[in-house]
C-alpha cells in the first residue's frame, strides 16, 4: 500500500501475477454495478450489487514479473518497485521491476478507476535475490538469498 492509501498491490503465491486493488468513486460504483461490465477490466468487485472495491491485473506486456513477492513504493510516490524473488521462489532471475505512477493511474476523477493503467515497465536484474527492500531517501536496499555453487542459499544485500 502506498503512503496515502490510494493504491494497493497484491501477489499470487507461486505465480507471476500482480493485482491492484481499486477503490471506486461513487459514479464508478454505479457504472460497475452490473458484473457483466467488469470484464476485461476487473477480475472481481465487492460487494457485487454496488461495488466499492475492484481488483484488476497489472499489465505485464514484456513478461518481466518472475515470482513477484513484494512491492515497495518510492518516497516521492512516482514509482512502485516490485521485487522479483526469482530462484529463491522457483523463478529464473531475481530482479526489481519498476511501475511508474502517474496522475492517469490514480483514482482522482470519475473517468477511470485507480490502477487500471498500471504497467510494468522495466526490470533490473538483482544478482543476490530480492525478497525484501527498504528505501532511504534516494537509495534502495534490496535483500535476498543468492544461490551458491553448492546448491545452498546465502544472504545478499544489493544497493540501488
What's the short story on this structure?
The protein has 160 residues and is mostly beta strands. The protein has one helix at 26-31, and strands at residues 8-11, 18-23, 44-46, 53-57, 68-73, 79-84, 95-100, 122-125, 132-136, 139-147, 153-159. It has one domain (8-159).
Description:
The protein has about 160 residues and is mainly beta. It has one domain. The protein is built from one helix and eleven strands; from the N terminus they run ββαβββββββββ. The strands form three sheets. The protein has a four-stranded antiparallel beta sheet with strand order 1-2-4-3, with no helix packed on it. Strands 5-6-7-8 form a four-stranded antiparallel beta sheet, with no helix packed on it. The longest helix is centred in the first third of the chain and has 6 residues. It is elongated.
Fraction in beta strands: 35-45%
Radius of gyration: 17 Å
Tally of distinct domains: 1
Mean pLDDT: 81
Strand order of the largest sheet: 1-2-4-3
Q: Helices and strands: which structural class?
A: mainly beta
Distance between the termini: 21 Å
Low-confidence stretches: 107-114
> What summary fits the major beta sheet?
4 strands, antiparallel
What is the ordering of alpha helices and beta strands? EEHEEEEEEEEE
The coarse silhouette is elongated
Total of helices: 1
Determine the fraction of residues in helical runs and give it as a percent range.
Answer: under 10%
Number of strands: 11
